[in-house]
Amino acid sequence: MTRVEEYRAALRALDPPAWAGFLTEHSGLPGPRGNLELAKALAEEADAATLDALVATDDEYLVFCGVVGLGRLLAEEADGGRRSELVARLRRHAADERWRVREAVAMALQRLGDADLGRLVEVVGDFAADPDPLVQRAAVAGICEPRLLRSADMARAAVRACACVTASVAARALESRRDAGVRTLRQALGYCWSVAVAADPGGGLPEFLALTASADPDVAWVVRENRRKARLARLL
User: Fold this and answer.
1) What pTM was computed for the model?
2) Which DSSP state fits 172?
């Protein structure tokens, strides 16, 4: 039994009103790493009302768990209006000032991808075109996950997202790039390209290498950081 399965069993043994206390007790915070396995377990067990209640709190870990769970709801939702509402909620949370909440959005998108890659590609394309750099960050961080990039089509979708977002950074005025959100986005691009290219080097490597012709300082930084990743360095 995996840790996620163990936590799911533990949650089922409790009444839902006791879940928030259990989550807090086993969050791993304060500390260097929050309990991701518990968050994934909660995301699979909680109903919509429970997730909404967690998101409505001011507790970062509880909000984190609730947002991860929104990805499961999105994966299961058949109604177009409800899907749009959930995507809009994830978009808002992607711009949260708390980094764990932003990471929860990426995990929620990955949960969607586990169930429906086509819908993930649609949402990622939408987020990548958003002017908010933190929403763009959610797009590339969400799709650049190795378990989702097992086909050439998905790898190409990840490369497209990285290319779109990188171009948007290069198009920004230099003075605007000191914004914290842009710096956060740049950090994500500093590893996401290597994940996307490694999934399909034949298709992705030429697009990545084309970036080396850019004189833009931030694009050059993105290229340099990705070249340092072992997954990409072995291909060069």
Assistant:
1) 0.96
2) S
